Amino acid sequence: xxxxxxxEYLNVGTFRFWFVGxxxxxxxxxxxxxxxxxxxxxxxxxxxxxHKHPDDRAHVQDxxxxxLRSEESFSSRHRFLDTKGDVHDAIVVAxxxxxxxxxxxxxxxxxxxxxxxxxxxRDETRQEVLDEALPELFENRAAIEQAKGVLMYVYRxxxxxxxxxxxxxxxxxxxxxxxxxxxxxxxxxxLTSPAATAQSQFDHVLLTVHERIPPDHSAQR
Length: 221
Known about the structure:
The chain is an alpha+beta fold.
């Protein structure tokens, strides 16, 4: 399975999905997220889709159908329900899975459960993470804040959740946070430009956002 033990900063599990036969594997962490004891249930497309939140199910099905047609990986921000009916807010981040010849055979990646990010029980751990990162934050604030902004926009998450994602990848890959953030920004700049519709939507927000700011926040003349 990709990755290692779930991060102490986020509830993270791994999965693999083979396009041929639509065969799934999930880690013990992902099984527990869904309310199952490890190795008691075999994951299937039908089972996983049955857990998706009714309002998000069509969106996830569309992504899965696209992945099967295009042989591309899929990522998603969506909700799912565990066996108790509790709702989980999750990000699925994946990349293409290749065989020895380099052919795409599936997708593999992570389930990141954001549901309990702000639980009181995790406040102490959260503070330890921030304290540990403060020297790097002061020294490299610009790169880290920019990388957080990218994650916030792409995954529609909060600033703290974005920081946790960066911290998780830093711990998982044994790469310093500042180096990871800077490299992420370098590589994001090489990606294909967003679709025209996304660009148009952002243009509209940029040019009209001032209209939705209360008067007392106007710039000082």
